[in-house]
Amino acid sequence: MAGPTSKTSYTLTKKTIPYDSILEHLSSLTKSIATDIGTHMLELFGSDASLTFQTVSRALLRAIGLDEGILLSGCQADETSADMNPGVVGKAYGAFNNAVETVVREEGGLSNKEVVVRTRKVLQDQRFDQHPCLYCSNEKVGATFLGHPQKTEH
């Protein structure tokens, strides 16, 4: 005969570390401005990094070559990129694309970083809650956006 059973009651509480906190910590270790955790993990752990990170990284480098890729994204990985309606029924376009066009139209010859920083400001002023990102090597951060001629001071 089995004895009396007692049930223990407990509550599980999920604990999370905000993505930005993890990214900030990894950035301080790698001294890199990359906005994805995978890049930091590869830099920190090299051949000890996850096989998935290594495989994807090598495939990308073969496809585009070292230091060739520059990517601007409309938002961070945990955000949603918004659409806008230009006032024409059935037409919509990305708020990010519109903001980039606005920034480049106002002043050409900006660096990749300047375009992203100014685009964030435009989106903030328009009350969009998304934060565009720039993915590239440190050398490409200061390169002119889409290779347009550098602005010159007269």
Overall description:
This protein is mainly α and 154 residues long. The protein folds into two domains: 17-66, no CATH class; 69-154, 2-Layer Sandwich (Alpha-Beta Plaits), CATH 3.30.70.1470. It is built from six helices and four strands; from the N terminus they run H-H-H-E-E-E-H-H-E-H. The chain has helices spanning 19-30, 37-45, 51-64, 95-106, 112-125, 138-141, and strands at residues 71-73, 83-84, 93-94, 133-135. The strands form two sheets. The protein has a two-stranded antiparallel ribbon. Strands 2-3 form a two-stranded antiparallel sheet. Helix 4 packs across helix 5 (112-125). The protein is globular, with a radius of gyration of 22 Å. The termini are far apart. The model has no long low-confidence stretch (mean pLDDT 76).
Any key phrases for this structure?
154 residues; mainly alpha; two-stranded antiparallel ribbon; 42% helix
Short description:
The chain is mainly alpha-helical.
Could you spell the SSE succession in H and E letters? HHHEEEHHEH
**CATH homologous superfamily of the largest domain - what is it?**
Caspase-like
Which structural class best describes the helix and strand composition? mainly alpha
Our measurement of the CA-to-CA distance between the termini, rounded to an integer number of angstroms, reads 96 Å
CATH architecture of the largest domain: 2-Layer Sandwich
